[in-house]
Design goal:
Length: about 190
């Protein structure tokens, strides 16, 4: 377990994977070690520690998300997408939590793809499929197309709530790999 300062734009972040955790918060590392106790393998992403950290930093924790990393950009033709200006909840959320936000939509507007710089400046993607278009592979196609849209071939990340099984299946079906879990504490 490592304790580092909070990244710009967040009050705190807890991220972990197999046998490692990073607590990124402007708190005393000794307090973190005491609050986590002996269970350093699971406690940092557990409800008790997250609630204690929330009280300490004065911010509510967000959802526990699976963090996925994109496969390389596809070489062949991707899904047809065009830049779009859309007033949509997914875009509004991205504008609150990311910078350099860019939006694409399918020609029929059934699929939406939103890129932006999120935690620690990493490129992050979110996708949305209109209810009438769900169940036909559009989410997977959007997730597969996303890596080609990132400037300079940089790494692309996604956070997916594990309970959002449709989204999780779409990203996994497009070759994304789960690498961690994280909880963000709002700006």
């Amino acid at each position: 377990m490592t304790v580092v300062p909070a990244p710009e734009g967040t009050r705190a972040l807890v991220v972990g994977g197999t046998a490692w955790h990073v607590v990124a918060a402007d708190v005393d590392p000794a307090w973190v070690r005491d609050a986590v106790g002996e269970d350093r393998l699971t406690a940092p992403l557990g409800a008790r520690f997250l609630a204690a950290l929330a009280d300490r930093v004065g911010a509510e924790p967000g959802v526990l998300d699976a963090v996925l990393v994109a496969p390389p950009a596809p070489a062949g033709p991707a899904l047809e997408l065009a830049h779009a200006e859309v007033d949509h909840p997914r875009v509004r959320r991205a504008l609150r939590h990311r910078r350099d936000v860019r939006v694409w939509a399918t020609p029929d507007r059934a699929g939406l793809l939103v890129l932006g710089r999120g935690v620690a400046g990493r490129w992050e993607v979110a996708v949305e499929v209109e209810p009438a278009a769900r169940g036909r592979g559009l989410g997977t196609a959007l997730a597969a197309a996303a890596p080609a849209l990132v400037p300079d071939g940089e790494r692309l990340w996604a956070q997916v709530a594990p309970a959002n099984t449709a989204s999780l299946r779409a990203f996994l079906g497009a070759g994304w790999r789960p690498v961690a879990a994280e909880v963000l504490f709002g700006p």
